[in-house]
Amino acid sequence: MTKDELRALVRSIPDYPKPGILFRDITTLLKHPDGFRSLIDAISSRHARSAVSKVAGVEARGFILGAAAAHAIGAGFVPVRKTGKLPGETLAEEYDLEYGTDRVELHVGAIEARERILLVDDLIATGGTADAAITLIERAEGHLVEAYFVIELPELGGRRRLEARGVQVHSLITFDGH
After folding, report:
1. Cβ neighbours around 107 below 10 Å, total
2. pLDDT tens readout for residues 95-116
3. What does the alpha-carbon distance between residue 112 and residue 94 come to, in Å, rounded to a whole number?
4. Which of 2, 23, 98, 162 is 20 to 30 A away from residue 174, measured at CA?
């Protein structure tokens, strides 16, 4: 499927999760067999030869995409979770939200020094969550190959934020506005 066909499978929901937000919902793309297959093929074909050791997927849709991409390229999968969801010892990183702070965690030992890591999530807006996940990967001494997002909202500056710290960013689909 083309990028335009994949884009057409993304549902836009006004005023969710709060008034003024136009939520880009990929569940409509995920339920479409050809759309989901094309999406995972796009991620995996881009990284088939990049010697990625592990794919780190950000909760929650990054789990779906990251695990499928990891399987397709023969890599392991590492979940980056919201605080309190991983058993055992974790590394944690706090990040700012519009209305406060949140935190993501990674298991200690999930990433070994110099392992090549692909970070995957469904959407990049301001880049706060991705920035925190990247910091966790770096603290674990992993080498980030790329941060891959299905959807980018360019006006919110997430790409610029990550690129300013030297991260290679790729997005499959862009939407104007937020």
Report:
1. 18
2. 987 678 999 999 999 999 999 9
3. 22
4. 98
Dump pLDDT digits (tens) for 31-47. 999 999 999 999 999 99
Alpha carbon distance, N-terminus to C-terminus of the chain: 25
- Find out whether the peptide bond into 19 is cis, omega within 30 degrees of 0: no
CATH class for domain 50-174? alpha beta
State residue 146 phi and psi, 5-degree precision: -170, 155
- Identify residue 18 by its one-letter amino acid code: K
What rounded mean pLDDT belongs to the chain?
A: 96
Place of tokens 């910091």: 135
> What dihedral angle (degrees, nearest 10) is formed by the CA atoms of 90, 17, 170, 53?
30
Q: What are phi and psi of 125, to 5 degrees?
A: -115, -90
Segments making up each domain of the chain, as ranges: 50-174
Cβ neighbors of 62 (< 8 A, separation 6 or more) are 56, 80, 120, 121, 122
